Amino acid sequence: MIEQIPLSSPFFHAKVEAFLAANGLRMEPMDGYYASIDGDGNIVAGAGIAGDVLKCMAVSAETRSEGLLTPLVSLLMSDHPGRCLKVFTKPEYQPVFESLGFHLLASAPLAVLLENGRGLEEYCAYLRSQVVPGRCGVVVMNANPFTLGHQYLLASALKQVDHLYVIPVKEDASEFPYTERLAMIKSAVGPTASARPAAMPTQADADKPACDRQEAITVLDGSSYIISAATFPTYFLKDLSAAAETQMQLDLDLFRRHIAPALGNPIRFVGSEPLDPLTARYNALMPAAVVIPRLEMASSRPAASTSAIAMQTHEDAISTDVISASAVRTFLSAGRFREAARLCPESSWPYLLAALAERALRLELDTPGKPGLVGPDGSGAHKDMDYDTLLSGIKTLRPFWSRMALAENPEALQQLGIEAEEAMMAATGGINTHRGAIFCFGLALYTVSRFSQMPHNENITHFPPSKKEERKVCIELIINTLRKTAQSLPIEGVKKREGIRGARWMALDGYRALFEDWLPFYRSLAEEAPSEGASATYSATEGGAFSARQRLLLRIMSTLDDTCVIKRAGKERAEEVKKEARELLEQFSEEKLKEMCTRYAQEGISPGGAADMLALTIFIDSII
Question: What pLDDT score does 512 carry?
């Protein structure tokens, strides 16, 4: 009897895990698992599926002559019609799958990779259509995100060939989604990149000019046939094991058999890998690869160049041995745009800003103890939304943040805001989770991105500024730019409520209160607890531990005319809310905060405008 096993159940999950272990396999993430069950309830054969990949297939030793695998695979195929399925399995099962219409893609001593469609054939046909004559090279990169090190690798490889193909890893198992990584690569090597100021890193050939041949690079579409969940799943887990070794051999064999011939057998270039043992081993197994030494930041110095494939750095760059995408991600997770940006070309900055926008919204959502607001501890005053609803809204908005940063003008920004709101409403079932955030974050992203591309003020050597006096000048310029941008947009309701200084009124004021009050207050908390930072848990001398973000929210609530509160409870009650927030901030205790949360939930009071400003302050804190 064949059954679908409910892997969400700890009992059945453990049962499948034990069955696989008994057959020399380990449990992997799967969308579903099907098993043949004997009369005693034991699993005697099983097969799982994750996306388009069949995996974790095994048959117990006692029943391997009974042909149990064929009906299992047939059922999986019938349950997923029209899909080009791939299977990663042991060599002894290859005949079974070939009898079901699968054909071999790649092989290794301990595993084979097969598929039942024309997916690889079609991808190779696409690659052949992109081939150009001459001595060619190819670089496969994840670019998570695209850094100065990636630029240096491309520039160095291009010096050795007439034409260079770049293939981004397509698997969406990285912090930056494939669409963003592809866009970063294209913008870094495209014709518009040459207009940005740049400097070539100084390695052995430091004084040689950089390659200025954008037309000599072709950025190809990625596919599931190169470093993917089908060919190399442990790459994304950074798990150097016997399984990883087999997967590396499969991925490299598939590239050798199919991808390389389709591109005319180009030279494969890789960057040296001193930090990640798994990638270092993958490079070592790669036949005839040309290894480019990793760019060392400490050895780089400015050199005149405007190449699209040149390096861009600053004299006061942070000291580090090598440039790595993992370092950039670490800086971003800590809200440190300045350090992250200096490891990336300017063309990647809009995507770094998008990641920081998502981070700020997640930090706001993940903050507990927010009176009347949705958080990890409940839905506050809301009956129509919960934590998952807001999380869905945040995830849906991610693609729009980089597009807003790259908007050509305020009109384009406004249109993107409309599209973002439509996408949000569709994802949340018509619930407004982030309309205010779309407005204020759109303004901020557009403004910060514009400022980074403007001719720098004579008092600012570069953006983002590193010196205190430069930050003051930068903040004033950003306030003025925010104000001008906001004034160019139709902001409904502001003139009708001239006596109310809500979030939209503050946009017309360039969010001056944020820069002059909320942000300094937030940073003062970090100074009181320097080892933890403003976004971490803050320990007070009295009242126990509570979050700095909770205190910042109370500060905002005490000063902002929150139109969300006014709409729900009226202007008089909104003034009382401001007073209560101010009093709690002055004499804080966890008991009083819990009491306020309970009372506001019962009254239906939700300071949504303050929540948006909390997220925006966190975002600005990460940039300036």
Answer: 93
Contact, 279 vs 237, CB < 8 A? no
∠ CA(224), CA(221), CA(114), 5° rounding? 25
> H or E stretch including 403?
helix 387-405
Residue 206 phi, psi (nearest 5): -60, -35
Q: Which of 362, 363, 379 is nearest to 371 (CA)?
A: 379
> Is residue 545 classed as helix, strand or coil in its secondary structure?
strand
DSSP string, 76-87: HHHHSTT---EE
Q: What is the pTM for the complete model shown?
A: 0.85
111 and 96 in contact (C-beta within 8 Å)? no
- CA 587 → CA 285, 543, 554, distances in Å? 63, 9, 12
> Is 409 exposed, middle or buried, given 0-12, 13-18 or 19+ CB atoms closer than 10 A?
exposed
Which neighbouring-strand residues pair with 141? 168
CB 41 within 8 A of CB 8: no
Q: Answer for the pair 36, 44: CB distance below 8 angstroms, yes or no.
A: yes
Q: Supply the angle between the helices 349-365 and 387-405 in degrees, to the nearest 10.
A: 160
H/E element, 168: strand 163-168
Quickly count: other Cβ atoms within 10 Å of residue 102's Cβ.
23
The label of the residue with tokens 């004033």 reads: 476
* Residues 289, 270 contacting (CB under 8 angstroms): yes
pLDDT value at residue 61: 87
Give me the helix-helix angle, 410-427 and 387-405, nearest 10°.
160
User: What ranges do the domains of the chain cover?
Assistant: 2-109, 122-344, 348-623
DSSP state of 245: H
First-to-final CA distance of the chain: 63
Q: What are phi and psi of 588, to 5 degrees?
A: -80, 145
- pLDDT at site 493: 46
Cβ–Cβ under 8 Å, residues 624 and 464: yes
What is the spatial distance between Cα 619 and Cα 442, in angstroms, rounded to a whole number? 12
Superfamily covering domain 348-623: Triphosphoribosyl-dephospho-CoA protein (1.10.4200.10)
Question: How many CB atoms are closer than 10 A to CB 415?
Answer: 11
Distance between CA atoms of residues 132 and 346, nearest Å: 29
| pLDDT < 70: residue spans in the chain | 191-214, 229-242, 297-321, 452-462, 491-499, 502, 527-546
Query: Are 268 and 274 within 8 A, CB to CB?
Result: no
From residue 365, give the alpha-carbon distance in Å to each of 376, 485, 612, 618. Answer: 7, 27, 10, 12
**Rounded-to-integer distance, Cα 588 and Cα 299, Å:** 50
For the structural domain made of 2-109, what CATH number should be given? 3.40.630.30
CA angle 540, 544, 547 (to 5 degrees): 65
Q: What share of the chain is helix, strand, coil (3-state, %, to 5)?
A: 50, 10, 40
Q: Which fold has domain 122-344?
A: Rossmann fold (3.40.50)
Provide the β-strand partners of residue 103: 115
Instruction: Check residue 455 and report its DSSP letter.
Output: P
Residue with token string 């270039």: 269
pLDDT for 506 equals 84
Encode burial over 450-463: b for 16+ CB neighbours within 10 A, e otherwise.
ebbeeebeeebebb
